[in-house]
């Protein structure tokens, strides 16, 4: 009986890992896609940022877990785009900030998990943070001036934040449902 219980426990953990892996893979695949309704002034939603915020919102996520997931997602995004500046820095900051803000503000998880407005607002704020970090990295590289970076930053940050926040519920709610299903399987 214990062996059977362990086997089901392993398969449930594999299912949880599979849901996470496949959802990241899908976000990576749609990252370069430019479909109608998914682009504003040449900028598309930051799908990995949306995924990271959705993952970080879940209960019992640690700061270290969010930071390590940000590094992994950032390096995956760097592998698909130019690595200078690195997306890992901005995604680490986004993951850590999401976990820290949710824990320090003591926002009830039920409110965040059922309502699309908090998800959209968190993703909006984190997209602005991520684009600001990228702008600071461009400034540190020194190949562009502050005025050029600032004018691009306003357009990029606002477009990315608007699109990412609008598409956040589309990513968050199915993922949340799948994660809850795998969690309920683990408890049974």
How are the secondary structure elements laid out?
Elements: H1 2-30, H2 47-57, H3 63-80, H4 87-104, H5 109-114, H6 116-141, H7 146-187
Helix pairs in contact: 1-7, 2-3, 2-4, 2-6, 2-7, 3-4, 4-6, 6-7
Structure description:
With 188 residues, the chain is an all-alpha fold. The chain has one domain (2-187): Orthogonal Bundle (Arp2/3 complex 21 kDa subunit ARPC3). It is 80% helix and 0% strand. It has seven helices and no strands. Helix 6 packs across helix 7. The chain is globular and about 55 Å long. The chain starts with a helix and ends with a helix. Residues 1-5 have low confidence and may be disordered.
In short:
With 188 residues, this protein is mainly α. The protein contains 7 helices and no strands.
